[in-house]
């Protein structure tokens, strides 16, 4: 988390992978942040847009992208999560739009189907399992699309 002044100074030195302005501060993700976590043998859960995938790949950071398919039937299961959405219908529409964006990224991703989890606790376990599965795979990146 950086103040506006710190953000402007650091932005000129190295571009951020992702940032979000929150009131008078900026929450930033840098390569150093990710490398520090990776050095501990851990994964980072990034709250970032798909547009940062190319930046990650250019920096030789290979994301594991898990798309949780949301539909009218399972959106109600997410009520326990701190989601800020106007309505469940809008959230389902937003998720479908993100699915279209996924098709354009220059790397593979995995999808969790709506019937693969029953609630938020189960979803967390299923995501962790999928991350472990994906971690074992050989990656493939279309470098000419970066």
TrEMBL record:
Source superkingdom: Eukaryota
Domain Guanylate kinase-like residue range list: 1-132
Name this protein carries in UniProt: Guanylate kinase-like domain-containing protein
Organism: Xenoophorus captivus
